[in-house]
Amino acid sequence: SAFLWHMRYPGSWQLSITLVSSMQTIAGVSEHAAVTSSYIYMMPIYDRKRLIEPQCCSEILSSQGRGANLALIDTRSVNMELVAKYHVETDLSIKKAAEAIAAEQSTGTWTEVRGQDNPLAARVISAEGSDVEIGFPEELFEPGNIPQYLSVVAGNLFGLGALKKVRLEDVIFPDKLLRAHNGPRYGIEDARKFLGVFDRPLIGTIVKPKVGLDPAGTAEVAAAAVRGGLDLVKDDETLTDQSFCPLISRLEAVMAALDKVERETGKKAFYALNVTAGADIILERAEQAVDHGANMVMIDVLTAGFSALEQLSKSLKVPVHVHRTMHGAFTRDKGHGISMLFISKLVRMCGGTNLHTGSYMGKMAGETEENDLSRDALRKDWHGYKKVFPVASGGIYPSKVYGNLDGYGIDCIVQAGGGVHGHPDGTTAGARALVQATEAWLKHIPLQEYAKDHKELDTALKYWGY
Questions:
Q1: How far apart are CA 418 and CA 4, in angstroms?
Q2: Could you tell me if residue 222 is inside a domain?
């Protein structure tokens, strides 16, 4: 209220403070906290930015006779800046490197220019060892514009010649930017309700071979997998709307086959149809797919873009499965690029239901710490966003299930392609073996022991190893 009063009557600082003080008992806050907050939010951008400097705290409080209390307040908690965390390798001092990043990504350039020291200049929060934290004023960002966010936190800094390597490790978003995004329309609980599965991990597969099958062949493989007990069948990331397997024809064939399995067995399953395409047609393609019966769509988020994901989530009344193809170009070098943690945060902000985050065991196995961070970013309480399934995928077969579920727990999707379809007795047997391995984990029974009276699992373990 005080802020709005001051905006209408700019000279009425004291009356604004009086309004805050009169409301403090209702709000349940101290006079010192109320007055401090009012000063912060009524100040111009430049003065609010100065509050970040410790000496400014005492200046303001001393001017009001309250210096002893303001110094106790961490002004960064006002949450008016985006904080980006980087790992940097350079021959410069780490402080100079941090200053170069802050300047390049906000108001500076390679030489001094008139006006660069303005309220939108980024600041160095910390620079120690090889780790840097940069604070960017929230006014530097256009709320809701993910491409613009990326141009700041992951822009030209990667090309600075004085920096040998830079890796964006994490970003802490201010509330103003988080409020500009809705998060998932359908989260973990919604997907579980559709399937009627609440007490175990979801189990999925990728149609194999990844390309080359026609719609009828794709449908046959999908139905065989669901007959074996799987919850999700997805397209490969390279399959979209090619002439050998047109998208709508493929969708109609697969959904008809899955409907038949459901009528016969009662088993429900998702089919994640890959609708990835250019910006001009992706939403139209996805809407057409839903009109033809799709119960889930899939997007290759790094090739199609985060804004494309966000549009799908906002516009479609089905969950969105998110593949991370091309991520290795950003995430693999632990000294340079962008972390999977940051990608996970963006996917949740933009509305993904499931996200491939890497496996603890398998051909795409990542480092345990990064898997943990990505998992937690998708599932912890965060700004009221719905929770997202992490997907373990890539070179997984029954003996790899334990390691992945130990890492991800129940609220995940364990997904195998070759580890299902390559089973000596076929796709349905391979699906059963994967389900049986999951059952063994849930019951805390060693795989070899559980395999004694589960023939599909026994065959898989003998074929691929323990």
A1: 61
A2: yes
Tell me the pTM.
0.84
Does 104 lie in the same domain as 69?
no
Q: Name the residue range of residue 284's domain.
A: 188-464
CA-based Rg of the chain, rounded to a whole angstrom?
A: 26
Residues 268, 262 contacting (CB under 8 angstroms) = yes
Per-position DSSP letters for 394-450, written without gaps between them: SS--GGGHHHHHHHH-SSSEEEESHHHHTSTT-HHHHHHHHHHHHHHHHHT--HHHH
Report yes or no: 267 and 229 within 8 Å, Cβ to Cβ.
yes
What separation in angstroms does the CA of 283 have from each of 201, 255, 275, 307? 30, 20, 8, 11
**CB–CB of 358/323 below 8 Å?**
no
pLDDT in tens, 338-373: 999 999 999 999 999 999 999 998 776 678 999 999
Q: Are residues 273 and 394 in the same domain?
A: yes
Domain end (from 152, 178, 204): 178
pLDDT in tens, 240-284: 999 999 999 999 999 999 999 999 999 999 999 999 999 999 999
Question: In 3-state terms, what secondary structure has residue 356?
Answer: strand
Specify whether 396 is located in the same domain as 439: yes
- Residues annotated catalytic, as ranges: 208, 323
Nearest to 204 by CA among 186, 222, 190, 189: 222
- The pLDDT tens digits for 150-197 are 999 999 999 999 999 999 999 999 999 999 999 999 999 999 999 999
Name the DSSP class of 383: T
Cα gap 188→406, rounded to integer Å: 19
- In this structure, are residues 286 and 310 in contact, taking their beta carbons and an 8 Å threshold? no
CB 104 within 8 A of CB 156: yes
Residues 37 and 62 both lie in one domain: yes
